[in-house]
Amino acid sequence: MLRRVLIQHGHHLQIKRSFIHTINHPQQSPSYIKPLLFGAVSCTTIFFTAACIHEKEKETIWQKLRKQAGNTLRDIITDDNLVWSDVYKEKKKLIREYQNQVLQDLQQRLEQYNALPVQLKRPLLSTAETAFYMPESEKTIAALISINIAVFACWKVPALQKYMTRYFCHNPASNRQWTLFTSCFSHRNAVHLTVNMVGLWSLGPVLHDLLGREQFVALYLSLGIGANVISHQLQLMARHIAARPILPSMGASGALYGLLTGTAYLYPDAVAFVALLPWIPFKITYAVPAFLTLDAAGILMRWRMFDHFAHLGGASLGIAYMQFGPNHMWPYMTNTIRELKKSVGNGKGGNNNGGGDKTSGALMEMPERIRAKLLGKKTVAVPDKH
């Protein structure tokens, strides 16, 4: 069952004119092409990096299983009882062993450190245990929230204002492409930060548990970049067509809208709660169209408080990815990484010349063979189980 989802009307803040005048931009014509290229290259790089990490971790687990089984590689491949639940259990076991070892080392160090009072040692150890035994999804979300909080703290340092404006606020007129990414973590006021992070904490674990850590992080980052690229293009078009001013913007709401619509696409009957009205439940398929209608009205009525283009862009990308990503794009990337690894192994003589690790290619093939058995069932398409 899907956990209750707390929906927030994401604030992709647009900076008011008084702030715009403090920004010194180079006198260049805003570009349409460069942001598109940056978005395509960066999102592709992010996803392929995530796929590499995913495949490396999976191979490590398979090697661990092979050592424990004490059988030949062919014995493992033909074992019908070896399914993805075994891999998932082994991964949890490896994580738990690591956590226990770290906590034991911490406890020993605290006991040896006599200068620290016992009254402080116990809370420190208890806090460490709580952090280590958090679900993997909550650890991932907590890491993303920590980055946002760190960037928010930097905004509060007067000496860093010029730096933050240049590197963590995206203005389509500035021709600085990297801010398409960095502005996704940027919030200048506490309300903006709190609303978005509450939304991330409530929405994130749902898709994280479904997609796995690597694919979820890649999706979240790409949604933020993609929403900003769409907003960039539409702001430039609106300036030429309707003489709308170009305003800088920042915030995580483009990515959050993508997570929201992605969740609604997969779980249309889920019950959601709006942050401003937490006591009133809404069916998510009703809440999402209401938010999107509000953003469309904001564009037509020229509201300037939020970046409505980024909201709608993130929402469309979230639906598009859930339609095609887990079924097609992610498997293609993981298969590509697997084939590249096989070809590199062959080039080093792993299978042809008697050199290298002969088991490496087979270890990468085993998940694909087992997945073929599992895909006989008609289920919601998701990547390899984590």
TrEMBL record:
Residues 176-322 form the Peptidase S54 rhomboid domain. It is a multi-pass membrane protein. GO terms for cellular component: membrane. Keywords: Hydrolase, Membrane, Transmembrane, Transmembrane helix. This is Peptidase S54 rhomboid domain-containing protein. The lineage of its organism: Eukaryota, Fungi, Fungi incertae sedis, Mucoromycota, Mucoromycotina. Pfam families: Rhomboid. InterPro entries: Peptidase_S54_rhomboid_dom, Rhomboid-like_sf, Rhomboid_protease_S54. It comes from Mucor velutinosus. GO terms for molecular function: serine-type endopeptidase activity.
